[in-house]
Specification:
heterodimer, A: alpha+beta, Nuclear Transport Factor 2, Chain: A, 7-stranded mixed β-sheet, B: alpha+beta, Rieske Iron-sulfur Protein, Naphthalene 1,2-dioxygenase Alpha Subunit, Chain A, domain 1, 2 domains, 8-stranded antiparallel β-sheet, 7-stranded antiparallel β-sheet, 20 strands, 22% helix, 26% strand, globular
Amino acid sequence: MISIETRWLVQDLLNEYALTIDHDELEAWPDFFTDDGVYKIMPAENRRQGLPGVLVLCIGSNMMRDRIKVLREANEFNIHFDRHILGMPKLEPLGGNLLRVTSCYSLFQTDQEGESRLFNVGQYEDIVDVGGPRPLFKERVVVVDTCAVPNLLATPI
Amino acid sequence: MLTPDIWPKNDYSRVPFFLYHDTSVYEEEQQRIFRGPVWSFLGLEAEVPEVGDFRTTFIGDVPVIFNRAKDGRVHAMVNRCAHRGAIVRREAHGNAQNHTCIYHRWNYGLDGKLLGIPFQRGVMGQGGMSADFKRECHGLEKLRVQSYHGILFVTFSDSVQPLEDYLGPNMSWHLKRLMSKKVKVLGYQRQRIHGNWKLYCENLRDQYHGSLLHQFHRKFGISRVTQQGGAALDPRHRHNISYTREGTDSTDAALQAYREQGVAESELRLKDTSLFRYTQEFPDDISLAICSVFPNACFQQIRNSLAARQVRPRGVDDFELYWTIFGYEDDTDELTADRMLQTNMVGPAGLISMEDGEAVEIAHRATLADPTAFAVIEMGGGGSIPDEVTFKASDIPVRGFWSYYAELMGCEAQGGIR
């Protein structure tokens, strides 16, 4: 039985994660993960074929901090503003302090001319640790339905 | 129909912008290039190991199916029903003993032969196809396939030169090197770039941009202009291999070279350096090799990240870049894990490749307005094209691409170099 309070805390985690990216506070993005947390963006077509190929893989929050640093200081990418629209999550107990949380998202990107386009749609497959002062992602696998990435994928989903 | 006078210079150091935007040029390219006397990259043998394994793809904008037939060989056919022109095999991949068009259930073998059509002799004595209808004349259009050490190439042409001659000695050597062991496919990546496909072919042959656009290279010392490297071309200069040798420069030399050019440096350090863990797996010191084969392919070794890239044009201002990531069957689990980590560097989200999508799109957008203006391709000098370029600040192989392009399109410049 997952308490209403835990459900709300997980819901807050999902919401704040998305708003943090949408507000371009990318430096705070790794703070949503445990230190050994894993972040992976994976094309759904690879998943369906049982292939491990990824688009992005960060093992540990240090690697996530590195990715943001590289984005800020080295990468050149399309100038855009992100907007995540989240679906309601499904929560399942995994034993201990861990929950499996599954939810869907749509990610729109808006350019400087104010034109918005659907950039990516897919599903978050999370393992959330609710044992600490606030829930954190132990694993967040982003399975992208939109395998055909328009232009490029720079900012996290 | 393009004419020789479209080229301001006979060394192809000027490229008129309309070539990226004119739809009639695009249509002619489909005919003269993709369906012309070239070998295009189709896929890997490792993708269709068993009899009946099939994958669907595009050569130029023609839908193509390839599969392994009962004779053990890979066959490729145009994926278009001989009846009414519908796509026959709609799935991206699978295993089947034959292919049936859903429209009227015309059925084809793995070799493309038409096996059966419903109601060929009519129903209860009525209808049916004409008495002189010959099934053997209505198979799927067959293409010629050849495997080069596990890389499948395909051609629509009867007159194209033999594959190994087409590739030339340098490319043959590099592809053999990359395919020296049995390959294991690890996954796919797709990138949709809103620009003309040739802008990407140029990008592949332009080593000049490498450490300038992709700053991750330089800031972390993976590939710098001061490292030993360069380009190797085929005798006709249509293909190109850009390579870098590991451990051939010093950080001081690199910093000085960039500082002299006023290019900013930074004290960027990664918190986690496992991304840079590198296992030397070839019997040479080449750590980066980008092997671009005219017209639609690139085979890459970027440290331990191995991939094939296929360019699939989707109209004059759109193409898909289709990446097949692979390792080898005898890889240890650690090496496979490292290949996955290094995948962070390549593909649409790659730390050293994401910029290419943006570069193509901004070039495509701004060249639309002025069709007779032209791009300048002169880094490394103009004039003749050498088979080897031993320095990295060069875009000479881009001129090689255009020289061969002009030949196929029937518009070689007056006295054009080759």
